[in-house]
Amino acid sequence: MSSARKKKDKSDRKQPAVLRPELLPVEAGPMLPWWLATLGVFVAALAAYSPTLDNQFINWDTREYVVMNDYVAESGGLKRIWDPAEKHEQYYPLVFTSYWLEHRILLWQHGESALESVRGVPAHERGFEPWIFHLTNMVLHAINAALVVWLLRMLGLNLRVALAAALLFAVHPINTASVAWVAERKNVLSGLFYLLALLLYMRTIRRWSWPAYSACLLMFVAALLSKSATLTLPATAMFCDWVIRRRWSVQSALRIAPMLILGVVSAYVTIRTEAGNSLTPLESPELLVRPFVAAGAVWFYVGKLLVPTHLAGAYLRWDVSGAQPIFLAAMAALVGLGALLWKMRRRVPSQAMWGLAHFLITLTPMLGLVAFNYTRYSFVANHFVYLAAIGVFLCLAMLFDWLMTLGWRSVSLRWPLTIAGWLLIVALGFSTHHTCQTVWKDGASYWTHTLSLNPDFWPGYYNLGNGYGRRANRLRAAGDQESADRLLLKSIDAHGQVIRINPSKAQSHGIRAKALLDLKRHAEAIESYKLAIKYQPLMPLYHKQLADCYEATKQGDEAVEQYRALIKNRIIGDAEQVRIFLWSHLMLGQHQLRRGQAAEAVHLYQAVLDFPNQVGWSNDDRRIKQQIDDAQRAMEIAKRSLPGL
Questions:
Q1: How many beta carbons lie within 10 A of that of residue 630, not counting itself?
Q2: What's the pTM?
């Protein structure tokens, strides 16, 4: 071999090592089909979720987030929404700002002005109409589904794969928990900013641009201000680097670093907010057990995405005490799949690997590895998988596309698979449409369906009973006492089921007792109030209502015991507790007067009159002012009974 030939061969062998890898190309071709696909996905999502426009609110978190949220209803609430020093259910200011804006639109539509204060204003008089909140959720989800088309295009996938994955995301029934539930606005709103941030990030991978990177960071901040679980975006973005550039680099780390810092700050704020709202310590499995529970949750979601049946509004909390074989099997299967994928990493398309990585990464904060408030009730929920599902849908679409290229006995599978694919999408869309019409119609439908699948889920009975109670109050106010009484009986039964499952649930004892009191079943109400006080002794309302029962049954001595307990406990945290505290003085004073103990009655009335000065109270509550006026009149009557007057 000549010397020149040897040099050439040596040069050829070295050449691939020094060349920089090419960018993964975006599929070339006319843009019109992509825009048509985007429009089709958007319309499909709207069609699937259109029944939500006629639905009511679901009474789980929606009352606290929207209807009974002072920040949303008050004219000055926007400032309080963004103030981190205020008490928040969750510090997601963009979500609550969207609720505030929707309420302003409703007020503008009806020519009404926002309330300066909503304290004491019934929920049905606050000017909330469900349709506008459902419309926003539906449109946000449709936009997100359309963005999935462009996300997958940026990953170098063909139109067929992008369209199939986006349609699955658009119409899959598991996403009803994120779209039809107004309280899950945080999912669809954070999803919008998350997908925009990811698209902008991939734009910077392909061609660096400071404006695009700055916009990416801005969208990421918006996503975090809508839901902190989107903090996983930097990890997904790093896998985008690997797919598009086929490597990681120093530039990748520099792009990701600011996003990691933002994610850590968001996680810290969320942990502090949830800790402040938690009245009792969070229950979580042993540290060594949590990874096995997380593995079980991963397979649970995979199963629901592949076979979307028996989708409940909420699931029972798994029993993880002891060595459960199912969790050991779940972990073994997950590790085995990971080993298999690693072995086949050169044969599996990089986009499919991205999809699996995105699925696991995005789910990680919700797998129970770190306890959060929802894990009190369950380790899994359909709305946890909203963004993560994109990864599974991508893998399914790629599998479908691969099958279409195969042949069997020289017979093409293209047309049979195409027809089957469209039939599947239509079937999923009809399932979602039907679920929105029936399950998510209102709170009663939602909880009835959930309890039919999980009959021992006590929060379901609790919320179902509360819904019956609120409807009963509205009917009673409208003069329909007979219908109200029927609903009260349903409320009593529902809270009885809560007590069956969770006997120490003081709130259910108290709510059940109040319904019995309204039905004038005083003996049963007294027993229920005693149990409520047993499990929550420092709840002023229970003592007051128990005293009402005793007064109604002419048990004056027992009523006096409750008044004395209220005065002794002196719980005056809010206006209602102040009213109960002062009321107990007035009622006890009446009993003392009837017993001829005018001096003690005067002392009690004087305590009411001195109350504003003692605690620096400056509230303008009308009913508290009335109580002080009543104490002044009672004082004058009591003084006439004193010796020497």
A1: 16
A2: 0.88
